[in-house]
Fold each of these.
Amino acid sequence: MLPSKTLAMVQTDINTLEPYELEIPDIDEDSAILQVEACGICGSDYEQLAGKLGTPIPAVPGHEPLGIIAKIGDRAAKRWGVDVGDRVAVETMLSCHHCSTCLTGKYHLCNERRIYSYIPLKEQHGMWGAYSQYMYLDPNSVLHKVSKDVPAELAVIFNPLGAGFRWGVEIPDTKPGDTVVIMGPGQRGLSCVIACKLAGAKNIVVTGLEADAEKLKIAKLFGADHTVDVENENATSKIQKYTEGGADIVIDVTSYATKPIAEALGYVKQGGTIVLAGTKGFKPIENWISDWVVIKEITIKGAIGVTTSGYQNAIRVIEEGKVPIEKMHTHNFKLTEAELAVRTLAREVPGEESIHSCLIPEF
């Protein structure tokens, strides 16, 4: 039976999360209540906590929900094709689904979109994030069924792995035989390795920092052919050697670092493609020489978010169980340990190295 209240971790100030009890609302025919099994933690969770995103405060964070349908309206059940007891992965974005952008299939770019985790507590019931035992599912949500045979902490990898398929394969159109350089071995960089390998890339190079040594080892487990420590090796020279003159595709998933964008121009081959998926806090790029884009006829593409095909590919791979994604998952945290989870991922907890982690609410 659905309880009347839910425990949620609420961001009440910059760098502050506090436990709240929220009233679980009645739902209409078009919405639902999700019992949260797991919420993935990524770099943007840290940015939100630190106040770098300018998101509303107070709010319930958590934009990577996996859970069980606890209550659902009749129209919502028919529209989503799910019912009480089904396990679902919830897409991050809430788009309008009727504007010209949505109708062309680019619903993730909807001008009216909202994002779970970034909706203020004062709006309606406030249950807009997955740092909670239960969360509200808006009528504009997009859901995907997920097998209950997969442990929750692995099933919730659907979000970063979905990004790997979209950023690493769909956007650059990665094909069999391509050479790919992936800059940044975090959970989304590693997910790009998995996706590119499954797409048939013949040569994958992953770059990282000295502190990323363990992550670079995991990159090789997932199919990377070479890794480069950009702090202790001549990255451009190594990559030119490993790729025999430059990569077909370079994917930047580093966060806040601007240097990799300029360096990517030296990694990509003539006529190649650079995908920029790591945000830089609106900082300018030093040593950016646009002439190389012209002279080498480089295509540069931006990447934001994940769409249905990326999520579906990720869930398929997770359910098949052929890729050892458990090598990426390092930590489970209780709901009340949300701040610890975020700070562990951000390397603010000595002696701990988090790659993929999640919150597992207790009931």
Note: The chain has a mean pLDDT of 97.
Amino acid sequence: MRALPAAKLLDDMWSDLEFLEFPFVPVSRDRNFFRQYDGFTALRQGQFNKNVNIMIGINHDEGNFWNIYNLPEYFDKPEQPQLTQEDFLKCVQTVFHSQPEVVRDAASFVYLDRKCQHGLGKSKYYAEQVSA
């Protein structure tokens, strides 16, 4: 990637993104990587940790942003969304449509209510699992 022109990286940043895939975006405020608070200044001055192979991050509830666009029938509502278990399973199939069936089954298994505390009716629980 270092050999590629910046314009090429920017052009390709949004191409072929699937549901819940995110483009590369710069992080400008991170005291663990940059030696000073402003990342853009640190990059210009070479004041950053150069011994990093990969950086990955996760934001809690980041699915909320995408759900209203990609699953509007469930999440583009003024009130707190509620899903049935069947709705939840449809969401998993939509979100992971490009993944093998074993991945879709694993995602369903991880987030399903295995204690059956939420029944088969509509529940805030299943909507929260899709947004997690």
Note: The longest helix spans residues 85-95.
